[in-house]
Design a protein that fits this description.
Mean pLDDT of chain A: 81
Structural class of chain B: alpha+beta
Number of strands of chain B: 10
Shape of chain B: elongated
Distance between the termini of chain B: 129 Å
Strand content of chain A: over 45%
Number of helices of chain B: 11
Largest interface: A-B, 22 and 20 residues
Mean pLDDT of chain B: 82
Number of domains of chain B: 3
Number of strands of chain A: 23
Oligomer: heterodimer
Order of helices and strands of chain B: HHEEHHHHEEEEHEEHEEHHH
Shape of chain A: elongated
Low-confidence stretches of chain B: none
Helix content of chain A: under 10%
Structural class of chain A: mainly beta
Strand content of chain B: 15-25%
């Protein structure tokens, strides 16, 4: 098996250099590959077959398959890490990460690490650089929750994580590591048991071992905090993932107006 | 003092204007100068003022309507309201301008009054629909695309116009409901909140362990993506019925996906319960007899008596029970 060579996407326009030969890989490895490269990774099988001149894409995971027919001159596909807002349907753009409550003293300025579910997107690039999201899959289980009340709240993708002051080991391709820079700007002790991110502001970075992202949590009072995704790599040699979005079905999210900008979510209905 | 001085002299201007507006002569030779027929320079000035005020008023009213209704009412309907308001202003301006044109409007007013009464009676419903439509657009209990229940009608809102609301029922039939009916009806909007709850009542046998059943159902719900973790699902034994134990299951789901969750989960719960050895009860009735009654019944069954005789009814002569 050939290990792909990492290159900086911002400099050379592609994250990986690949072998231009037919191959079946036993790892996913984010990057751009020819249709001839199949993936057979744990429960995942992914392949492109030429059927009478039409490329037939087939992906299997946990007994479920997804198929598509493609007519494209550019015989390449890309594998991207994506935020968990696509599966099983684009329900919400908010991710709630719950963890064991932490008591934060007034003026506290600390860094915590949590993990969050990861999705993997297969995209096609046209010759005019138009990107088509062909498929999105995940090894993580999807659950949703309501943050706040049914009238004022928002639907969030829900996950529970370990929490640590040092980087946690992550299950590669299943979850990503999130670095939270937390600042308690209030004058009282605060119990923090969850953070909610606006996923369209999430910047994922990856290397051969993991996918990671960073966010700032600014606690305003014991019931409110402002969570902002920051566009920074966890480690210097990490490559930035292309943002992958699809349209969302539901639109009634009143809380978005409380955000300062598109990258921010204001948790004003409790922090625990 | 010249004629021009008189025309523009302080309070006299307003007196002259008032006289001109009433179609009279001011006594001012310049204003009373005839241009053609009975039409004077005073009438011309008054007409110019009326036109200017009309245009200004129309602009103010249309701006106000747009400002108030933008975001609350469909643009198409806002345009319609602006046009209606404009025509009302034009009509009033025409009535005001009639004395300047030396048109006798008393006949028009009398005829207009009669026609107005007739139209008023005829358009009573239309007017109430119109007002209800405007109020619906401002209050916005329903929006296009919402799943609603209006009285007995369930379906998707296709449009909310000034006079009526179109509902597409689940079986694809388009239903037009006058806005006055919609406004006075009990409206249930199923998707106005981001989440909603649905429930099941699941019966299990008395021979089954209800705790096991609750655990299986809870596990099944926890695996379904659209069953929200918060608010947590509520499961409990609700009733000890005649035929089985009733387990109540209440689940919250995103409003846009509640139907998917509701339909998928019920069957999955049933399958998982069966897999776990818990089954739904068949309707059954256990009859208890006293000892004497049981013996008597056994004797009667073994005898050659008809069924009617056993239960104490006089046997029918022919074709009776045997």
């Amino acid at each position: 098996m050939v290990i792909p060579t990492f290159t900086d996407r911002r400099k050379k326009g592609t994250a990986f250099q690949y072998e231009k030969t037919d191959s079946v890989w036993e790892t996913i490895a984010f990057g751009t590959y020819p249709f001839t490269r199949s993936i057979n990774h744990r429960r995942l099988t992914l392949s492109f077959e030429d059927k009478d001149g039409i490329m037939h894409y087939k992906r299997g995971l946990d007994g479920k398959t997804f198929e598509a027919n493609i007519a494209a001159s550019n015989k390449e596909y890309s594998v991207h890490p994506a935020g968990p807002n696509h599966l099983p349907a684009p329900v919400t753009d908010y991710l709630q990460i719950r963890f064991d409550e932490i008591e934060l003293e007034p003026g506290c300025n600390t860094v915590l690490f949590v993990t969050a579910p990861l999705e993997i997107a297969i995209t096609l690039n046209a010759s005019n650089n138009e990107v088509k999201i062909l498929d999105v899959f995940s090894f993580a289980r999807t659950k949703f929750a309501l943050y706040g009340t049914a009238t004022r709240g928002v639907i969030v993708r829900d996950t529970r994580s370990r929490v640590s002051a040092v980087p946690l080991p992550v299950k590669n391709y299943k979850e990503f590591l999130l670095r939270l820079h937390i600042e308690n700007k209030s004058d009282s002790w605060v119990s923090l048991g969850r953070v909610i991110l606006y996923l369209k502001g999430l910047s994922l970075y990856y290397d051969s071992t993991s996918v990671a992202a960073c966010a700032d949590v600014s606690i305003i009072n014991p019931n409110s905090a402002q969570v902002s995704c920051t566009d920074l790599p966890l480690r210097k040699d990490m490559v930035k993932a292309e943002p992958v979005f699809t349209d969302r079905k539901t639109t009634a999210f009143c809380n978005i107006k409380n955000g300062q900008n598109d990258l921010t979510f204001v948790m004003d209905m409790g922090l625990r | 003092m010249t004629e021009t001085d008189t025309l523009f002299n302080g309070s006299e201007i307003f007196e002259n204007l008032e006289t001109i507006m009433n179609g009279g002569t001011t006594g001012n030779s310049l204003l009373d100068t005839v241009i053609f027929g009975e039409f004077t320079i005073g009438n011309l000035i008054a007409l110019a003022i009326i036109i200017a005020v009309t245009i200004l008023l129309k602009k103010i009213v249309s701006t106000l309507i747009r400002r108030v209704l933008t975001g609350k009412v469909d643009v198409k309907n806002t345009d319609g309201l602006v046009k209606l308001a404009s025509w009302v202003i034009y009509f009033v301006a025409f009535l005001v301008a009639c004395p300047q044109l030396h048109i006798d409007i008393s006949g028009i007013l009398v005829a207009g009054g009669i026609v107005g009464v007739a139209i008023g009676f005829a358009s009573q419903n239309t007017l109430s629909n119109l007002i209800a439509g405007i109020l619906l657009m401002i209050e916005r209990p329903i929006n296009v695309g919402d799943v609603v229940i209006i009285n007995e009608t369930e379906g998707y809102v296709e449009s909310v116009s000034l006079l009526s609301t179109l509902i597409k029922t689940y079986d694809g039939i388009l239903l037009r409901i006058p806005n006055s009916n919609v406004f006075s009806a009990d409206i249930r909007n199923c998707v106005s909140n981001v989440a909603r709850r649905f429930s099941y009542g699941i019966d299990i046998r008395y021979s089954d362990n209800a705790d096991t059943a609750l655990k299986i159902i809870r596990d099944t719900i926890s695996r379904h993506p659209y069953a929200l973790t918060e608010p947590a699902p509520s499961l409990y034994v609700d009733d000890l019925g005649a035929h089985g134990i009733r387990v109540a299951v209440k689940i919250w789901s995103p409003s846009a996906y509640w139907w998917t969750a509701r339909t998928e989960l019920l069957w999955q719960i049933f399958k998982d319960l069966r897999k776990g050895g818990v089954d739904v009860p068949f309707n059954q009735l256990t009859l208890w007899y006293g000892k004497d009654d049981a013996e008597k019944l056994q004797e009667n069954i073994e005898s050659d008596k008809s069924a009617a005789e056993i239960i104490g009814i006089k046997a029918e002569p022919e074709g009776g029970m045997k």
